[in-house]
């Protein structure tokens, strides 16, 4: 993998519980798990960050679109929730492959928008690049680096 600082993220975990130190370009932050899961609750969880990426991308996409159209979009709120749901009503729902990850995404569009503008923004919200990537699926290649 290339060591291009502006295009890579470095995550390190040391001897402390589940605390991860993340360096993304020139930004650093912690990722952790709640205390009840064995962490120290010193930062958002990995799933919090996944939802944050999707929410931020959605809001930015809507802002760019509304600005381009000169629509009176005064603010955007995106509330997200991750949960595991049953793939179908079944007797063997606890077996592998019977549960699905699901993200609920609720949009709150602020400003004097028409119903047509709101509906169009709803459609556009599903076209943000992060959502497209998640919906397509990812191919992840893992290599073992020399020590």
Write the layout of secondary structure elements.
Layout: E1 9-13, E2 20-24, E3 27-31, H1 46-69, E4 75-86, E5 99-110, H2 115-125, H3 129-136
Antiparallel strand pairs: 1-2, 2-3, 4-5
General description of the model:
This protein is of the alpha+beta class and 147 residues long. Helices cover 29% and strands 27% of the residues. A hairpin with a 6-residue loop joins strand 1 and strand 2. It is globular, with a radius of gyration of 19 Å. The model has no long low-confidence stretch (mean pLDDT 89).
Distance from first to last alpha carbon? 15 Å
Strand content: 25-35%
- Helical content stands at 25-40%
- Structural class comes to alpha+beta
Please state the overall shape, judged from the principal axes of the Cα atoms: globular
> Uncertain spans, ≥5 residues at pLDDT below 50?
none
**Can you write the helix and strand succession as a string?**
EEEHEEHH
Number of alpha- plus pi-helical segments? 3
Largest sheet: 3 strands, antiparallel
Strand order of the largest sheet: 1-2-3
Average per-residue pLDDT, rounded, comes to 89
Question: What is shown here, in short?
Answer:
By secondary structure, this protein is α+β, with helices and mostly antiparallel strands.
Short key terms for the protein model shown above:
alpha+beta, two-stranded antiparallel sheet
């Amino acid at each position: 993998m290339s060591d291009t600082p502006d295009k890579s993220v470095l995550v390190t975990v040391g001897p402390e519980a589940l605390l991860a130190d993340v360096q993304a370009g020139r930004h650093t932050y912690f990722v952790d798990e709640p205390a009840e899961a064995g962490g120290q609750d010193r930062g958002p969880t990995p799933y919090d960050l996944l939802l944050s990426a999707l929410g931020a991308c959605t809001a930015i996409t809507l802002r760019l679109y509304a600005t381009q159209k000169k629509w009176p979009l005064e603010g955007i709120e995106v509330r997200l929730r991750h949960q595991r749901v049953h793939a179908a009503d079944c007797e063997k729902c606890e077996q592998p492959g019977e549960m699905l990850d699901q993200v609920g995404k609720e949009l709150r569009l602020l400003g004097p928008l028409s119903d047509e503008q709101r509906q169009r923004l709803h459609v556009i919200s599903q076209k943000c690049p992060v959502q497209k990537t998640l919906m397509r699926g990812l191919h992840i290649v893992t290599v073992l680096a020399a020590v």
